[in-house]
Amino acid sequence: MIIALSAFVGVARTAVAAEVPDGAVLPAVVVTAPEERAAAPTAFHTVIRPAEQPQSFTTVTELLATAPGTQVRQLGSPGQFASVTIRGSSAEQVAVYLDGARLNSAGTGVVDLATIPLGAVDRIEVIRGGGSAQFGSDAIGGVVNISTANAPLGTTTAASVTGGSFLTLQGNASFAHRDDTQRVLISATHWSSDGDFSFHPSTTTLAGTTLAGNTARVREHNRTLGESLLLQYGTQSDAHTEFRATNDFYFGDRQLPGLEVEATQLAPLNPLEATQQLYRDTATAGITFTDLGTEGLQLDIGLNNVFEVNRFDDPSPALGPAIARTAYSNGLNPHVRMAYTRGNATFTNTLAARYDFRFDLFDDRARNRTTTAAGTQVRDTHTLLLHDEWQPWRDRLFVAPSLRLTTTPTVTRHAEYRLGILGRPLPWLALLGNIETAHRLPTLLELYHPDQGFIRGNPDLDAERAWHWDAGARIETAVVQADVAYFQQHIHNSILFVPISATTIAPINTFAVRSDGIEASATLQPWEWMRLSANYTWLRAAFRSTGLQLPGRPRHAATARLELAHDLSARLRGSGYTEGHWVGAMPLNVDNTVFIAGRVTLDVGLKATWQPRTGHEYFAALEARNVSNVQIYDARGFPQPRRAFYLTVGGKWG
């Protein structure tokens, strides 16, 4: 099936993103290329291009952590499980896309960011705010839209290798070719790390008293391995028809050290033996016809498929008998979109309609007699998106209403709306705002988790519902780019696992949540050799019944960076950066009596780039992370590495 999907041909003309995530309508006046934004022009969003970052060694997780409004939770060293939340949401309430295919499975709903290698990623777009009207379910908090690189004109090869702390090794090699009629990209990435590191047990506060461990321990059983291969092909048969197909393979194998108490108090009598193997194949394909019968009429037909295997083994868990489970999930998404654009020198209007069918299968199997499994569960979803983009005065005013109708026979029906407005009173100043509704369908595990005595699912769950609005301003000049936004979000029917008896927990629709906050970011580049950037997020995510902060959500977060560069000679360029991160204290329980202490960390790096001749480039970079050696926790019981060093060398030929 995967081979057939990979062979399914189609996609879009470069001027059209045929693989826009799950119903997203493109914001351009005519059409938008795959590398352009998927967010509506009125949305508050951040675009991160890895090639433009000062770090030579980094991960998707680290880059997302620097975006305003986002919070990344990493359960250990790089390569271990990591997830993202936006504007106080849960990880299940953030939709993650890779080349237009939604990675959130219907089984668990959470995307593990550590399984997305950065080697072939061209851009990461973080869209903040409820996005169900544009992107469908799972987008209550926002969207992370990841796009792999398109082959540049000509033939290019590139390679890099990184080595560093914890016996970390990362390598990437790519080949790209593009001419007038076709393009090809092949990229392979390897990741491995022993992962073991020293740490200090959790520093928390209890009733105002700081509790901290001063004895260093070793985080063991932490090895990770990842292999990925990206294949991309596109061709243009004529001026109005273009094809694009992408297949991304990922395999991961990692040890799971578990909670720190398992290593510090239970081992070695209870050995650390938990392991996980992951396999994912993401296939996207489609065909786009432009000026179909008449100028301005466009038709996109596409197909996405995401297949995953998750194998978990723990012969000796801290509680209960041995676990041996394999979960299979598959999300198949054929879609068709038609759009018509008309306009003149002062007026432009784009009307679009898109139909999506999504079939999700989740098959949870036990591989021993002591493990209970959820069995086979399926869900099919039909959605119809109607979208209008209206620009009565070209760049001075933009109005974008959307309506999405969703039908899921086994769950419920939903109607979502969105209205975005952007006004530009001055060429360098934009005022924008949005109001929208959103929802999240319960995951199949939340509905049908097998009764294991201490935990079970709830087939009577309703979907989470939310409404959201935000407003702010954006400044864009040759020297300064900045934006500020205030947002407010109300979530109803929140799904939480709570005790339903003295011995069992289960998910129920419970507390209403209100989140509001302020996001501000700015980039200043007064000279070509210096760039300053910073962002700050103030978040109040609280239960409406008590007013207390949601667990795991810090009130304050900020990032600041200074980049310097200088031409040492005609062919040699030196650069350096320093980047600071501040995360405020975050509560660990609903009563807000136990907190993880706030932290400030600092990263620094130096890089030399040599161009011996046109088309050839070599570089070497040395970087230090967390130079102040602060002990970091994003979640209780899961320490992260302290100070670490990495050396990267690489080159590009084209």
Radius of gyration, whole Å? 24 Å
Number of strands: 39
Structural class by helix and strand composition:
mainly beta
Overall form? globular
- Beta percentage is over 45%
Distance between the termini: 36 Å
Low-confidence parts lasting 5 or more residues at pLDDT below 50?
Answer: 1-35
Please summarize the sheet with the most strands.
22 strands, antiparallel, barrel
How many helices? 5
Mean pLDDT: 87
Percent of residues in helices: under 10%
Please give a quick description of this structure:
The protein is built from 5 helices and 39 strands.
Description:
This protein is mostly beta strands and 654 residues long. It contains five helices and 39 strands. It has a 22-stranded antiparallel barrel. A five-stranded mixed beta sheet has the order 1-6-7-4-5. Strands 13-12-34-33 form a four-stranded antiparallel beta sheet, with no helix packed on it. β25 and β26 form a beta hairpin. 44% of the residues are buried.
What are its keywords?
single chain, 654 residues, mainly beta, 22-stranded antiparallel barrel, 5-stranded mixed beta sheet, 5 helices, 39 strands, globular, disordered N terminus
Task: Set out the fold topology.
Elements: H1 2-7, E1 44-48, H2 60-64, E2 70-74, E3 82-86, E4 94-98, E5 101-102, E6 121-128, H3 132-135, E7 142-148, E8 154-164, E9 168-178, E10 182-193, E11 197-199, E12 204-206, E13 209-211, E14 217-219, E15 224-238, E16 241-255, H4 260-266, E17 275-290, E18 297-314, E19 323-343, E20 348-366, E21 375-391, E22 397-407, E23 413-426, E24 429-440, H5 444-448, E25 464-476, E26 480-492, E27 495-499, E28 505-509, E29 513-527, E30 530-543, E31 556-567, E32 572-583, E33 586-587, E34 594-596, E35 599-613, E36 616-625, E37 632-633, E38 639-640, E39 644-653
Parallel strand pairs: 4-7
Antiparallel strand pairs: 1-6, 2-3, 4-5, 6-7, 8-9, 8-39, 9-10, 10-15, 11-14, 12-13, 12-34, 15-16, 16-17, 17-18, 18-19, 19-20, 20-21, 21-22, 22-23, 23-24, 24-25, 25-26, 26-29, 27-28, 29-30, 30-31, 31-32, 32-35, 33-34, 35-36, 36-39, 37-38
